[in-house]
Amino acid sequence: MRIAAIVFSPLLALAGGLFFLGLARKVAARVGWRCGPPLVQPVIDIIRLLNQSSVSHGGLFSLGIVFALAGAAAVVLFLPLGGPPPFRESGGLLAILYLMLLAPLGIALSGGAAANPNSSIGVSRSLILTLAYELPFLLILLAVMTRYGTISLVKIVESQAGGGWAIFSLPLLLSGIAYLLILPAILGFRPFEIANAPQEIASGALVEYGGRFLALATIQQALNLFIGPALFVNLFLGGAGNPLFFFAKMLAVFTGVLLVNAAYPRLRLEQAVGYLWRWPTLIALAGLAAVMWW
Amino acid sequence: MKLELILAVAFGGALAAYPAGKISSRLRNILVVGAALFPAAALAGLYGVRTGNVFYSGFLGFPLILRIDTLSWLFAVTVSVLGALGAVFSLGYIREGEVSDFYYPNFLLVNTAMLGVVLAGDLVSFFIFWEVMSWAVFLLICHKRGRALAAGIKYIVMSLIGSGAIFIAILSLRSAAGTLVISRIAPALAGQPPGFLLWLLLLFSTAFGIKNALWPLHAWLPPAHSEAPSPFSAILSGVLVKIGTYGFILLFYVLIGRNAFLGLGRGWFSPSHLLSLAGGVTILVATFIALRQDDAKRLLAWSTIAQAGYIFVGLAFGTGLSVAGGLLHFLNHAVFKALLFLAVGTVEFRTGGVRDLNSLGGLSGRMPFTAAAAVVGVAGLIGVPLTGGFVSKWMLYQALILGRSPFLAFAALFGTWGTVLYGYKLIHHIFLGQLDRKYDGLRPAPFSMRLPMAVLALAVMVFGVFPGWPLTVIDNIIGHLGFDPLGVTAGGMISQSGALNTLNLLAAVLVSCLLAAAVLKAGRKTPRVGPEDNYAAGTVVPRDRYNFTVSFYDPLERMLKPYLRDFADEFGRKLTGRGRTFFGLVRRIYTGDVRDYVLYIVVFLALLILTQLGWRPWR
Q1: Do B141 and B152 form a contact (C-beta atoms < 8 A)?
Q2: Domain limits for position A86
């Protein structure tokens, strides 16, 4: 049973993430009155990329992308996806937070080893953007953990099953709103598509990837698209009793992000940092203060 | 083995290294490595031993005592093992010459004095070893002369302030408690008013805070760490700063005692909380100043201040979990920071003294071993899962969150994300990006420099995968300090509030890694290409012209610049400037004219006679 869960949950996340990737292109196209590629286009792309030849820029270049993908896959094993996660007691939300770090770090290592200035610029941008959204993000997570008095994500979900969704309980409402405000930045969608801006810096850290490397990077991106909303559903929408409900909740959240993505242009980096450190941070701070002294 | 024998042999080795160097450098090298390894080997066997004895009783009527318990053991072993690794690294790093004869005795002297500090069983011998340590460190910081001399002066001035504070504190303790034997002080202080305990806290915290580089007492550390010879920077950062940490543990939980310390004040205004806040400020300020550094060793120096802040928050916060987390982070930090200083030192050694991050790049192809060691070190520094730093930081965060101090937890967590930025900057600017042509012929590090790095890198990973080993020792220590046990398992711990199992993490990450690597390796072979094959929008670029390093985090730096000044250092500079003006004026009384001096004497005598006659100006 547990073995099945270990195999099943990354596959579920991968399928969901690839669906989200396809959906993102489709929605962006439809909002602009275009037809857009079919929903399975990312899958076709990955199969094609896996069969193409690729070149490497050395050991750290390959190691980085492997670490990035492994980090993203490992996070999924600790997330409840409409049921208890395969690995239950392993450091809770704090460990998840740290595992989420492996993906950007791995990409950064790999991108730096490629010795292309475009990728260095992309990495610099992505790390600054990460730092920018981590400020409100950490405040949100701390508010939730302080409210429920635990660091275990499973226990947070269980508490909500008894006491209603966190986003509708008054002190956590502000934190939930702040999470929604920074979700596009976590997922790297417009207006925060700064780190891999294809027209400016040739996809940033991904510029030297081709063939199997690009396939792995796309899979990592798909998992990343899955993790951001999944965490929101677990923290604020009470998780779910089965994977189907869970996915439905995620889809609702994700569609909102896609509409924002389709409507906005890209911000400059300092504008993005300025925004993230102003409204989301203030709201998250107010949320944490409310949890502490309500 | 008797403790005084270990110390005597270590001191003897330090003194003998100088004449041995005059005879032959090979003899000296053997002697140095032997003298550095001996205490490590002798102390390792003393785990779990609790003993102490008077080794000299005639010093002004005070008995001088050496003793060992698990706390001293942990610090002593860390000090001596790092000392031995630093000595081995020095063999390659320190170029032969006149000054090398002077370097080794000092190096061993510092290590031995640190051992003495952690093994001292009474405050008089503690103070004596403390002073020997401070002076020997001063000589080593100044080793390279030039700019190092200014750094050394700054260090010794602050260090002397700390020594003065300890001295006053010892005198106050002597008159209040009547004893200076460390284990007898806490019971003797039982009836003292809280004001006296605060006074002790203030004095000792000044001294230990300066050594521990606690904000705002950190000003000496960045220049000292960056100017000292690299193997000694590793010792400075890895263990010497932590002697301040040891002092704090001694102060909070042994001299004053856990209950008395945590019982002082109430809520926000308790010393425990205020000191934790100082630790939180240290983390944030030092992390973001480190982000702006362009000198590799200066960046690491600021990072040391920030990480010492983590340790200090854990100690001052005062729950069993937080103190254990602080102690574990002490151990981990000693390992990974020493590793990073050695890696940077290797680069400095091979490139002919280049530490400027903007003029390096792409060295991973030339020094793959050093690059790998640095990546492991930075991973430990950030606290990537499966390295030692992860476990200790996890414990600290958990303690702070469950202790309902989310703002302190926020400082610690956000500091970690700042660490990601400067840690990556260090790796990227030195080892990634394009290689400058002038470094084409760079050779890898010699074996004597690679060996210490290999040992330390292994330790970073072992402490991350099997944290149960160090945690067992730490569980024992906090038990003696009066806290509840942790519930240690091989892969972490199981407690009421949350469990950690690094073996699960290891399994998850390892299997995912293998799968991803299999996909990457499957199919056709991947040819390796150089940077000249890079995408450059259809143009050909020269190989070493396009390296993005200068102002790497520019938008962020510009935004943070107005807030991120080293206010403490600026205050110190202003103070010394004012002092110079004032004392320049005072100096004018030395006119060089005998008649003026006679006048001073006459005025002074007149004042004395007046007071004798019954004029009391102060009434």
Answers
A1: yes
A2: 2-293
